[in-house]
Specification:
Blueprint (H helix, E strand, L loop, with lengths): L16 H29 L5 H9 L20 H11 L12 H4 L44 H9 L9 H11 L1 H8 L18 H9 L2 H22 L8 H7 L11 H11 L18 E2 L15 H10 L17 H4 L12 E2 L21 H10 L17 H12 L6
Antiparallel strand pairs: 1-2
Helix pairs in contact: 1-2, 3-9, 5-9, 6-9, 11-15, 14-15
GO molecular function: cytochrome-c peroxidase activity; electron transfer activity; heme binding; metal ion binding
InterPro entries: Cyt_c-like_dom, Cyt_c-like_dom_sf, Cytochrome_c_Peroxidase/MauG, Di-haem_cyt_c_peroxidsae, MauG/Cytc_peroxidase
Cofactor: heme
Length: 422
């Protein structure tokens, strides 16, 4: 066995408010169930498992996932009308400068809401990999660098990114007016007068549109910003319904008999032991979503020819400056409901080169890996963590691992058990 694994406190901090109390209760009940089933586990697996290993294994079950936390910054987050409007907007290619890019262009529903590319491609090519959406409603920070603090604020970024949707704020307001007026006004109230608004204007846009934005008076800018924010809130309502599918691992770990018929094989079970034990994977990939939703420097180099990405060090600063964050005027939250933002740390050397821990659910089916698709396959990912090389920027948190060839093969076998049950 490797050294004991300790899970940091922030690994459960993404369960906000009432949901946090529920997860604490769930963990208490889990401790009781461990003792009740540990004997069954040890007998059926044919190997000796410590109670710590069993507890960690059970904590990864999808059955331990609490209800989706409320988003106080989005008052329509769970409104069925917002969900349907958001679904339509998510798939609408008219929300782009070339009429060919929708949210679903990169977040493909039949590909775990990602696109299989090393770098996302909208109207141009981005500098990072598309992240899957399932379970993101549990995360306090969005994007690889955490520069947004809600799903609705996250949805806005790509819309006016020059290489993603390539649109601008008045363009989107006009589109809502032309195609979604009734649905929009039923949720958010009357749209502003569109007659006086230019077709293309926004603060984050090419020069002509940016100039047109500056010529608008403050009241018009604010009314357009409100429409823009509401577009994000509707899309977020839909994205909150996208949850991780059940896997073979979840069926196996839920059974009182281990292994359950037709579930995990010996190699996959041994891979789980590596995962929660000497592989130390569970240190960051913990909880039912297999992520602590935090940021870590794991010593990954950028693709050839690309400048070194500073990750969270940049993202934390951008979040504090974001007009659509939880404390901003377009948020529906009270200031005391914005805990993560109020205690946001923006100056910390450990943030340099740190990126968000991705969920490992479905991971075997979505290569390449890392924030810019730098590593092609799971075998090379495991080798990267075993080697624990120095980081090209900042300081890597990795420590070299002692995993032989069988350990590595077993670990990859376990990761393949996290595929959706079909």
């Amino acid at each position: 066995m490797g050294r004991p694994v300790s899970i940091r406190l922030h690994s459960i901090l993404y369960f906000r408010g009432a949901a946090m109390r529920k997860i604490v209760l769930a963990l208490s009940l889990l401790a009781v169930s461990i003792h009740a089933h540990s004997a069954d586990f040890l007998m059926a697996s044919g190997v000796s498992w410590s109670e710590e290993e069993i507890a960690l294994a059970r904590s990864l079950s999808l059955d331990a996932l609490p209800p989706i936390p409320e988003d106080p910054s989005n008052r329509v987050a769970d409104d069925p009308r917002a969900i349907e409007l958001g679904r339509a907007l998510f798939h609408d290619t008219r929300l782009s400068s070339n009429g060919k890019v929708a949210c679903a262009t990169c977040h493909l529903p039949n590909r775990q809401f990602q696109d299989d590319r090393p770098l996302a491609h909208g109207v141009g090519e981005t500098s990072r990999r598309t992240m899957p959406i399932a379970g993101m409603a549990y995360s306090p920070f969005l994007f690889w660098d955490g520069r947004k603090d809600s799903l609705w604020a996250q949805a806005l970024g790509p819309l006016e990114s020059a290489v993603e949707h390539g649109g601008n704020r008045t363009m989107f307001a006009h589109l809502i007016s032309a195609y979604y007026r009734d649905s929009y006004e039923a949720l958010f109230g009357a749209l502003p007068d569109m007659v006086s608004l230019p077709a293309d204007a926004g603060p984050i846009a090419e020069a002509k549109s940016a100039s047109a934005w500056q010529e608008l008076d403050e009241a018009d800018q604010e009314s357009v910003n409100a429409v823009f924010a509401n577009i994000g809130k509707a899309i977020a309502a839909y994205e909150r319904t996208i949850t991780p599918p059940r896997t073979r691992f979840d069926d196996w770990i839920a059974s009182p008999a281990f292994p359950a018929p037709g579930s995990l094989n010996k190699e996959e079970i041994e891979g789980l032991r590596v995962f929660v034990g000497k592989g130390r994977c569970v240190t960051c990939h913990n909880g039912p979503l297999f992520t602590d939703n935090y940021f870590h420097n794991t010593g990954v180099s950028e693709p050839k020819g690309q400048a070194q990405d500073r990750g969270r060090a940049t993202g934390a600063r951008l979040l504090g400056e974001d007009m659509f964050n939880c404390l901003g005027r377009y948020s529906d939250a009270e200031p005391d409901q914005c805990t993560e933002l109020r205690f946001l740390v923006t100056e910390d050397r450990s943030m340099i080169g740190a990126f968000k821990t991705p969920s490992l659910r479905g991971v075997a089916g979505r290569p390449p890996y890392m924030h810019a698709g730098q590593i092609e396959n799971l075998s090379d990912v495991v080798d990267h963590y075993v080697a624990a090389k120095e980081a090209p920027v900042g300081h890597s948190e990795l420590r070299a691992l002692s995993l032989d060839a069988q350990d590595r093969a077993d670990l990859i076998a376990f990761l393949r058990s996290l595929e959706e049950v079909r």
